[in-house]
Automatic annotation (TrEMBL):
Residues 247-545 form the Penicillin-binding protein transpeptidase domain. This is Peptidoglycan glycosyltransferase. The keyword Protease applies. Gene3D superfamilies: 3.30.450.330, DD-peptidase/beta-lactamase superfamily, Penicillin-binding protein 2a (Domain 2). Its main location: membrane. The keyword Protease applies. Residues 75-214 form the Penicillin-binding protein dimerisation domain. The lineage of its organism: Bacteria, Pseudomonadati, Pseudomonadota, Alphaproteobacteria, Sphingomonadales. It is found in: Membrane. Keywords: Carboxypeptidase, Hydrolase, Membrane, Protease, Transmembrane, Transmembrane helix. Pfam families: PBP_dimer, Transpeptidase. The chain crosses the membrane at residues 38-57. InterPro entries: Beta-lactam/transpept, Beta-lactam/transpept-like, PBP_dimer, PBP_dimer_sf, PCN-bd_Tpept.
Amino acid sequence: MNAPAFAIGSIPMTVATGRCKLVNIRQRTLLVAKLRTLWVLGVFVLVAIGAFTRIGYLGATGATTHRGELGASLVPDRGEIVDRNGVALARDFRVYSLWFNPEAMTEGAPLIHSPEEIADGLLRIFPDLDRREVLEQLASGKPGYLRRSILPEEANRVHALGEPALEYPRETTRFYPQGSLAAHVLGYVDSDGKGHIGMEQVFNKQLTGMDGRTHPSVLSIDFRVQSALEDELSKAMTLSQAKGAGGVVLDVDTGEVLALASLPSFDPNHVQPEDMMVSDAEARQGEVPRGFNRVTNQVYELGSTFKPITVAAALDAGTITDLGRRWPATPLHVGRFTIHDDHSYGSTLNAPQALIHSSNIVMSEIADELGGVRLKKTMESLGMNERPSVELPARGFPIWPTGKWPRLRTMTVSYGHGIAVTPMHLASAYAALVNGGIWRPATLEKLDPSEVPAGRRVFTAATSARIRQLLRMIVKFGTGRKAAAPGFRIGGKTGSAEKPGVGGYRRHALITTFAAAFPMDRPRYVVVAMMDEPQGTPATSYQRTAAWNAAPAIGRLVPRIGPLLGIMPDETRDIDISDLKPLIPQEVSEE
């Protein structure tokens, strides 16, 4: 009997081996799946750790992430400039431009219509175009701009002319929403995207960097105060028929400039060549272009506004210990030079009366006792011997006599002649006079409280307190009466000085200035207004001095800006001047 093909015991053995192989394959599959899951989880953990590490680093350091090309394309080419309250003063704006492309037609002549027809059609859309220049450009066959910054409706009208060579590409331009407001502070941007003359030039690198393009640059300027200052200066120019004006509003405790204006101004949206230059003949006549900043770039002899500085220096030095002391008020002869006053105020005057009546004679005698060394040191401590400390690139260098000041120089400087500085110098000096005696640099950047500079002490706190009384008395009883605004407790000093010219001073050309602070019981702001060559008109009672043009401008301005700055009129408050009133009995009786 033949044996079976398979032994009885071989069948189970074969089946067991197959099952073992299947089990091994299943285990390996599960192991691979688990390993893959672990790898995926590990990658997620590493990504999470990296993300949390990055977030922690950015939170701790304040660093910003790098923007790629897509991010860069979503932000403007140039950053925004805003005022201290976030009001836009300068920003990029998408516009159309009118471009002549002679290669628009691939075949035949570059133009479908004649150059004359095209020029006439464009003139109907843009009446201020120069027809001759347009014809020359069209005839030349050279591509170029026919006009920049056109409106969409103007682009549609150009399209309706049916001329393929006239194109209107979309471009970015710099736009100033407030027009000419604060033009000398902002400056302008040229066709190449470069800033000029103002903070556009100062911030040029910042505004074109990624951080500056995504975060606005904040100025110390207050749009509302700036608007009021320009309006009142313009009104004062009109009333006095002055050829120019300038003004500044300054925070006495921080040095921040709330407003700065130079008139006549220009529109940074449409800068013309004549805005930035004058002819040789005009320059010889003392004319300056509209883009010239009278507040920071032009130096003047600012006249009697220097007298409170002289008195403060004498009080600090101890050469004045008694404000009731009297000095001779008759014409003073120094060599071949005679110092005199515009009017006779009696045979003698004390220091308060000398300030109230603006006596050159008594101020010269006070300075003579003080001495040139000490007066010069005070002026240097106030920064009068260097360019004004503000960020603008246009900063005039003072006319400053070096070396030891002779006696006559010391006397003339005491009443604002012999040195020439900018109105910005004067504003910073008056801030030191009234804020407790600390000089700080002016700034056009908004400061956090922690960023306010410590400054340097020029006057003692006691001297500053006395000067506040004297400045208030000038407005109540003296040449500054027309600056009085009920409830705002203004104090200040007038100054009128002849402009120098070829061969000496021009007696019929004045620079008039009023430097003020308010409220004098707790000064917060200095305000300076300057008029260039004002005339005697019916509106100024035919007077040309600061008491009749610059001082009234401040009297109108302060009630407008005070409430905006949190200072409300209060006629129940004022600085106490009762201890000084007995020194000026005649002036008080005339009030």
